[in-house]
């Protein structure tokens, strides 16, 4: 699916270190979260179980609990310090669970989730077939998957500026919306709908942008990233290239945000795995169709 891979341990370390600073820099994340929450109107049922995958500091989990007060809302995150921060948003009147877990291996049973919500987390999961197979596994038939992720134009100015300095990967790379949609269909998720929007944020200096990325935990976690310290000369070349984009006293930064939703597949619907297809369904569905063979 992709020619690049994230270092999962580095992703975890980055977000663990950013737990204390995340909410000082999450204006875009809050904006996108509000959009996703509003779009939950398409789910017309009352859910029993709601997962917030990549919950971070728990703002989204709290909003989901407010919207669905009778549901069991569970915040799942890869970084334990983020879940510790999330406790501040869980009131005794509207509590939600906090569970350490990975989007690739969600710690819940098959077909047990009514709504699977994820705000700006899936961009760190480049193995889309594995990711969406797991989403299809845990969703009830007709359950709702709704999420946001970053598209490939995100941080394009920073990426181009680093390319002027050297040939190393300094900025994370993200997958195209069409690849995301194809992967959802391939894993049996029904009727996917995707939107792409671009936000332009501005900063006083390139350093301010880099500080925000660090504060969010969005540092480069590409497995092919340079492991040593970046030389001052290379860094200065990047800054000079970025400064050439300055307009009206600020520098721009593009963030391409893809939002999407789809529905859990019915039991027994097949999905691709490797070169073939597999289907899963409750064993009870076999009962009554067995025939005894006389001896």
Automatic annotation (TrEMBL):
The family database entries (InterPro entries) matched by this protein are listed as:
BioC, Malonyl-ACP_OMT, Methyltransf_11, SAM-dependent_MTases_sf
Disordered: region residues? 264-295
Alphabetized GO MF terms: malonyl-CoA methyltransferase activity
Family assignment from sequence similarity: Belongs to the methyltransferase superfamily.
EC class (word): transferase
Q: Which EC number applies?
A: 2.1.1.197
Tell me a GO biological process for this protein.
Answer: methylation
Q: Organism, per UniProt?
A: Luteibacter flocculans
Per UniProt, the keywords (alphabetical) are: Biotin biosynthesis, Methyltransferase, S-adenosyl-L-methionine, Transferase
**Reaction(s) catalyzed by this protein?**
malonyl-[ACP] + S-adenosyl-L-methionine = malonyl-[ACP] methyl ester + S-adenosyl-L-homocysteine
User: Main role?
Assistant: Converts the free carboxyl group of a malonyl-thioester to its methyl ester by transfer of a methyl group from S-adenosyl-L-methionine (SAM). It allows to synthesize pimeloyl-ACP via the fatty acid synthetic pathway.
Instruction: Report if keyword Transferase is assigned.
Output: yes
Which protein, by its recorded name, is this? Malonyl-[acyl-carrier protein] O-methyltransferase
Pfam families per record:
Methyltransf_11
Task: List each copy of the Methyltransferase type domain by range.
Answer: 51-146
């Amino acid at each position: 699916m992709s020619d690049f891979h994230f270092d999962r341990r580095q992703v975890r370390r980055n977000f663990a270190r950013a737990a204390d600073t995340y909410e000082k820099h999450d204006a875009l994340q809050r904006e996108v979260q509000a959009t996703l929450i509003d779009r939950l109107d398409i789910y017309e049922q009352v859910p029993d179980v709601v997962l917030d995958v990549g919950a971070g500091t728990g703002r989204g989990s709290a909003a989901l609990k407010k919207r669905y007060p009778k549901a069991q809302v569970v915040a799942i995150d890869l970084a334990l310090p983020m879940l510790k921060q999330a406790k501040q948003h869980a009131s005794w009147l509207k509590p939600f669970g906090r569970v350490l877990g990975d989007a690739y291996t969600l710690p819940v049973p098959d077909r047990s989730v009514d709504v699977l919500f994820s705000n700006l987390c899936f961009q760190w999961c480049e193995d889309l077939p594995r990711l969406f197979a797991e989403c299809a596994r845990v969703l009830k038939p007709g359950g709702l998957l709704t999420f946001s992720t970053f598209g490939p134009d995100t941080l394009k100015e920073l990426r181009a500026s680093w390319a002027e300095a050297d040939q190393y990967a300094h900025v994370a790379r993200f997958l195209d919306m069409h690849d995301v949609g194809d992967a959802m269909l391939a894993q049996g998720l029904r009727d996917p709908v995707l939107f792409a929007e671009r936000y332009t944020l501005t900063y006083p200096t390139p350093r301010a942008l880099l500080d925000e990325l660090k504060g969010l935990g969005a540092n480069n976690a590409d497995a092919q990233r340079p492991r040593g310290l970046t030389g001052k000369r290379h860094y200065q070349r990047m800054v000079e290239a970025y400064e050439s984009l300055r307009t009206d006293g600020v520098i721009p930064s593009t963030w391409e945000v893809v939002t999407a939703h789809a529905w859990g597949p019915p039991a027994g619907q097949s999905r691709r795995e490797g070169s073939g297809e597999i289907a899963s369904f409750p064993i009870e569905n076999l009962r009554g169709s067995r025939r005894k063979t006389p001896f």
